[in-house]
Amino acid sequence: MFKINLNNRGITLLEALFAIGIVFLLFVFGIKPFEAVRDRQMLNRVVEDVEKILQSARTNSQASTDASSYGVHFEVDRATFFAGSFYFESDPDNQTIIFDDNVNITELFLVGGGSDVVFNRITGDTNTSGSIKFSLIDNPSRFKLITVFPIGTIFSNY
Q: CATH says 13-156 is which class?
């Protein structure tokens, strides 16, 4: 019959290198899709947070909370909720959202060319309507837009 040789019990160096190579390839090609999902979630989270503070500024302005109007000031890596018609960086009541490391504002087009969206008391409309484009730093072709219309409504392609 068949003779079984029990003396060959190990694996060769070539077999070990081949197995390590397969694991390495699976790791390299398997990580990319997860990074893309993570980046997409990061971008969506930032846009959702900014949309919330814009909506909060509009709602507080319509309610005339503390007899004031409210707005949001934009910088490349953050958005700040503020009370009043003008943004003052030193105001202790400001509420700032700092974006994730891989997300920033790449385009800010507001009427008047400023960096603040201020909602009018009672009506909730704005004289500083426009659009804000958020992009991934590593992949600028991946972006989301928030549009603020003159009547104060906020729309995003989230």
A: alpha beta
